């Protein structure tokens, strides 16, 4: 794993409870904005996850508060949430979701999954980390499996990477590594690995292009795009 990710997860390990508290504080300050974002994300998750038979095994990488995993579970799927910080694991357990401590760059998957979900985590990966995660998820997916993830778009930034302290934005007040990807560099890795881009869009920010959102699948799947 990269030194960038290693240092960043150390920050999460030490500050997970603060991160969780800040999320609640942010939700209370901007309830309407948060509600709209949540509804949009859940609609997106539902549309794609429901391509899979109910009861399918789904793995989430970097679940933090476990809200997304809980939502996927509520749709009738067998979800395993994961993260690297003990305090996140405890929070996810409180929500009644099965969870394991798992560093996607270091640990090995022990089961096969029908889908892997990874939301706002690639932002802490170098290009080499991203390549590793895309390869690992490809290997762990069942034949007709989906990998759903997003990455921050470099079009909105003047740099492709930086260390950021978002203390004034209700984050943790300590620096984490942020990587901004171009669509072409991700597309290149994705197709080299053998994934098919099943769906793609940009969303968020002032110009609706802050995030690159991908739904990937192993080739030869039976799904038809809705
Ligand atoms: C910005 S938070 C996003 C949390 C959640 N997915 C969400 O959308 O609210 C980034 C998450 O990625 C996790 N993370 C970063 N590097 C990781 C790694 N190597 N393995 C597993 N999780 C990682 C962090 O612990 C943190 O929970």
What does this protein structure show overall?
It is a single chain. The protein is built from 6 helices and 9 strands, in the order H-H-E-H-E-H-E-E-H-E-E-E-H-E-E. Strand 8 and strand 9 (211-218) form a beta hairpin. The longest helix is centred in the first third of the chain and has 27 residues, at 3-29. A 7-stranded mixed beta sheet has the order 3-2-1-4-5-9-8, with helices on both faces. A two-stranded antiparallel sheet has the order 6-7. The protein has one domain: Vaccinia Virus protein VP39 (Rossmann fold). 39% of the residues lie in helices and 25% in strands. Helix 1 (3-29) packs across helix 2 and helix 5 (127-140) runs parallel beside helix 6 (183-193). The protein binds S-adenosylmethionine.
Helix-strand blueprint:
Blueprint: H1 3-29, H2 31-49, E1 57-60, H3 67-74, E2 78-83, H4 86-94, E3 99-101, E4 113-118, H5 127-140, E5 141-152, E6 161-164, E7 176-179, H6 183-193, E8 195-203, E9 211-218
Parallel strand pairs: 1-2, 1-4, 2-3, 4-5
Antiparallel strand pairs: 5-9, 6-7, 8-9
Helix pairs in contact: 1-2, 5-6
The structure holds S-adenosylmethionine.
The site of S-adenosylmethionine (SAM) has 18 residues, from helix 1.
Helix/strand-derived category reads alpha/beta
**What's the end-to-end separation, in Å?**
37 Å
CATH class: Alpha Beta
Q: What is the overall silhouette? A: globular
- Helix and strand string, N-terminal first? HHEHEHEEHEEEHEE
User: Can you tell me the CATH topology?
Assistant: Rossmann fold
Task: Let me know the average pLDDT.
Answer: 94
Main sheet properties: 7 strands, mixed
Helix-residue proportion = 25-40%
């Amino acid at each position: 794993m990269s030194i960038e990710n290693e240092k960043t997860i150390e920050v999460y390990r030490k500050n997970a409870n603060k991160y969780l508290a800040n999320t609640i504080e942010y939700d209370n300050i901007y309830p309407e904005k948060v509600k709209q974002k949540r509804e949009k994300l859940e609609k997106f998750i539902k549309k794609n996850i429901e391509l899979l038979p109910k009861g399918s095994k789904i793995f989430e990488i970097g679940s933090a508060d476990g809200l997304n995993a809980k939502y996927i579970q509520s749709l009738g799927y067998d979800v395993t949430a994961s993260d690297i910080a003990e305090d996140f694991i405890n929070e996810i357990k409180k929500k009644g979701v099965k969870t394991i401590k798992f560093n996607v760059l270091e640990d090995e998957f022990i089961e096969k999954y029908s889908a892997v979900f990874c939301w706002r985590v690639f932002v802490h990966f170098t290009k080499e980390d991203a390549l590793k995660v895309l390869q690992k998820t490809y290997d762990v997916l069942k034949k007709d499996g989906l990998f759903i993830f997003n990455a921050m778009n470099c079009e909105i930034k003047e740099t492709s990477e930086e260390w950021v302290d978002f203390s004034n934005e209700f984050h943790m007040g300590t620096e984490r590594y942020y990587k901004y990807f171009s669509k072409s560099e991700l597309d290149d890795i994705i197709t080299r690995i053998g994934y098919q881009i099943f769906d793609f869009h940009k969303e968020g920010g002032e110009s609706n292009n802050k995030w690159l959102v991908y739904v990937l699948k192993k080739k030869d799947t039976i799904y038809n795009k809705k």
